[in-house]
Specification:
There is one protein chain. Helix 2 (36-53) packs antiparallel against helix 3 (57-76) and helix 4 (83-117) runs antiparallel to helix 5. This protein is 85% helix and 0% strand. The chain has five helices and no strands. It is mainly α.
Length: 154
């Protein structure tokens, strides 16, 4: 009886392993281990396979067109730096510079008020507030840049 239970348990384990491996084969390769263009192409190819599986010809056409452009971008820039990524990065850097400039303008206005009052403690508070704001803005920028890099596989 014990041998029979071991056999059934072993058999069920093998079946589960087969099911898991076949579902992995159906899902395709794991794109998350790739980076840059290779990852983007892998993900598009998985979308394409799914669209073909459901016979969604409009989606198949759109994804194939997208893949064509993606591959062209990757050939032009082998490092995987796409024009879209470069544009998003430029927007992010522009936002960062704008935020720093706004903080500097606010600092200057607060500093003028503190100097007008002639209080050294208030001047020091304004300077500390500005430094903290710069650090906060920089940390937010770095997080957004990390998110952007992750989204594009860099």
């Amino acid at each position: 009886m014990a041998n029979r239970i071991k056999f059934i348990s072993s058999f069920l384990g093998m079946i589960l392993m087969l099911i898991a491996s076949s579902s992995q084969a159906l899902m395709g390769p794991d794109c998350s281990v790739l980076t840059g263009c290779k990852r983007s192409i892998c993900e598009k190819e998985k979308e394409l396979a799914e669209a073909k599986q459901y016979n969604d010809m409009a989606k198949v056409f759109g994804i194939e067109k997208s893949l064509l452009h993606l591959r062209a971008d990757c050939v032009q820039s082998p490092t995987g730096t796409s024009a879209k990524y470069a544009g998003k990065l430029a927007e992010l850097e522009e936002e960062y510079q704008g935020d720093l400039e706004d903080a500097l303008n606010e600092y200057r206005a607060d500093l003028r008020d503190a100097q007008r009052d002639g209080k050294s403690a208030k001047i020091q508070q304004v300077e500390e507030k500005y430094q903290q704001k710069k650090v906060s803005i920089t940390m937010k920028y770095q997080q957004k840049k990390a998110d952007l890099n992750a989204a594009f596989g860099y």
